[in-house]
Amino acid sequence: MDKGFDGSEGAAISRRRLVKYAGAGATLAAASPLVGGGPAAAADDAERTNGSSSSRGRVWRAGDHHVHSEYSGTFDTTTNPPTFQKGGDAVYPIVTNAIMAKHFGLTWVMCTDHGGPTHSKVNLEQAYPDLLRSRVLVPEVLQFWGMEFDAPALDHHTLMIPHHRDEAQQLFELESRFAKRDAFPNDPGRDTEAKMIEFLKAAKDMRRKPLVIAHHASRSATGLGVYGQDTPREFRNGNNVAPDIYVGFEGAPGHQAGPLIGEARGGYGSYPTHGGFDQMTARVGGLWDALLGEGRRWWITATSDSHVHWTRGGSDFWPGEYSKTHVLARQDYADIMDGLRNGRVWVGTGDLITSLDLTASNQDREAAMGETLTVSARNRTDVDIEIKFRPLDGKNANGDRPEVTRVDLIVGGITGPSADLDADTNPTTKVVARFGPRDWRKQGKDYVIRYTLRNVEGDLYARVRGTSTDEIEPLADGLENPWDDLWFYSNPVFVHVR
């Protein structure tokens, strides 16, 4: 290993037919068994189900919110309007992606095709009907509607639309009004941070709120902390405007199969990923920690960014083949979005583990990922941390039986908003403990680690990562086999001292 994202009157499919397809897909999905079902899976789900009424039926459900289909195509701009040609960038039908997602253990997925001049009409008139058919054909996988949004002044972002009757119209409105590449002729006025803020304000005011998550945030960075299209200032400004809409970035970008064909992981050709993770996430005390240290609810995910499989000339794995975003949710569109919005999420590569729980407790109070534990400064302020993970029972998609070699507990202080919008470090963040196999104990199918944070005097957050490697910190990636360099990361649990 080296060291170093209003329907048009000319829509090709009627509103009545769209509703018919959408209703059929939702009905079949609700009645169908989960991917990988059967007695063993049912028992596995049951023992991880939270018993409270608000979360009953929630288990860890793996998915992928960044997958491309043949509708990531090209445009002939010599015609007016431009002529769309399928398959110019990604090649697989929407239903093929859903079938492969099911095969690799995903229960939810999202179609995120590239935009372009007048692409909003392509999405509405061509791609959306195919998505509805795919929902009927593969009901075991919840298939979200959205796109890889051409974010003004930024790199691509997931724009995830809530599942409802008018989802196609909602995406059409946002894409046609705000996607920087949708206008024809090109409109430079769309490619400004002010337009991005306008977009987020419009999304925030919608009755059904979408989600926005940045893609491959440091792919255009030229060095460590030398950012490109996406900057700390833009993340802060967007999150300030719409904190329940603009909620995070990809911790692990797609295109992870690059080294198998001699290319950089993630397509990060100027400055590499570290252990397959973006520098904004992988660097302890880096930008992610800086945002968390301000008290922001800013989450990480992991995706495939699937265009073309690496065995067919691309640099990608199938959805779920290598990277997974696990959400604690019911098999329900709204609850999965709620989990993503509120940080009930952990991510992993290579199926190193299949379940991860992180809790913080004090006396009779407890909080999990995305939640806040409130403790009183007048009482005992020790905070007990419990990490519970489940290793893979069997082989992953590469035929390997990966093993966890180490788990790290990372803690950072929450000190409030930074006066410097460009700040990308949190000097309070540290790896407070490292655990090896001798430090965890078996509990059924899980392994459990317990640790106590003594004399907690101020607000903090805790997060966890683990690896199959012997690297103390994830090294900058070269052309190593990605299957030999596996990591998992939790989202944080917060502690508030009052």
TrEMBL record:
Question: Which Gene3D superfamilies has this protein been placed in?
Answer: Metal-dependent hydrolases (3.20.20.140)
Q: Which residues form the signal peptide?
A: none
Checking InterPro entries in the record gives: Pol/histidinol_Pase-like (IPR016195), TAT_signal (IPR006311)
SUPFAM superfamilies attached to this UniProt entry: PHP domain-like (SSF89550)
Annotated spans, Disordered: 36-61
Superkingdom in the source lineage: Bacteria
State the protein's name. Phosphoesterase
